[in-house]
Amino acid sequence: MASSLTCAGVVWAFLSFLCAAASCVGFFMPYWLLGSQLEKSVSFGAFRRCSYPVRDESRQMTVMVEQCGRYASFQAIPSAEWRICTVVTGLGCGLLLLVALTALMGCCVSELISRTVGRVAGGIQFLGGKCSCGERMGM
After folding, report:
1. Cβ neighbours of residue 99 closer than 8 Å, sequence gap 6 or more
2. Helices 7-28 and 115-136: crossing angle, nearest 10°?
3. How many CA atoms lie within 13 A of 107 on its CB side?
4. Mean pLDDT of all residues in the chain?
5. For the segment 107-127, what is each residue's pLDDT rounded down to a tens digit?
6. How confident is the model at residue 134 (pLDDT cuts 50, 70, 90)?
7. Whose CA is closest to 66, among 47, 49, 78?
8. What is the DSSP string of 76-95?
9. Nearest CA to 46 among 76, 1, 9, 77?
10. DSSP 8-32
11. CA distances from 95 to 4, 23, 24, 72 (A)
């Protein structure tokens, strides 16, 4: 198998794939926020939740459903901000996977990734990481 990547490019490709996998797992798991409600442990993410309150009309009280699940529809996500977060994070994970898989294919196929394309892709990943960290840090 011929490769179009240098040793640094191969390391970058594998690290990109690991980061893409971690990001996707983090996106699909409902553990973004952890807490407690009605003396039960609860957690939720952009489009999944675990242990959530529902109104029991027969008993006229709020009870906790102790299971994980997705929201019934896109509109059932609690706020517009969470809906935007779901779309943007999902698109980001998709693009990250695309770049990572392309880089991994560059390890096996010669002439797939040029030196300039590799540098530009690495720079975009670096800037995306810096922007993402700045948002989380309140900058």
Report:
1. 16, 20, 121, 124, 125
2. 40
3. 16
4. 76
5. 777 777 777 777 787 777 776
6. very low
7. 49
8. GSS-HHHHHHHHHHHHHHHH
9. 77
10. HHHHHHHHHHHHHHHHHHHHHSS-S
11. 21, 11, 11, 26
Q: Is the confidence at residue 133, as pLDDT, over 50? A: no
| CA of residue 103 relative to chain centroid, distance | 19
Residues 6+ apart with CB under 8 A from 130: none
Residue 130 confidence (pLDDT) above 70: no
In contact, 7 and 107? CB cutoff 8 Å = no
Block residue for tokens 């901000």: 81
- 106 CB neighbour count, 10 Å cutoff: 23
Handedness of CA 39, 40, 45, 49 (dihedral sign): negative
CA separation for the pair 84, 128 (Å, rounded)? 18
Q: Six-digit token pair at 33?
A: 């926020």
For the purposes of burial, counting CB atoms within 10 Å of the CB of 92, is it exposed (0-12), middle (13-18) or buried (19 or more)? middle
pTM: 0.65
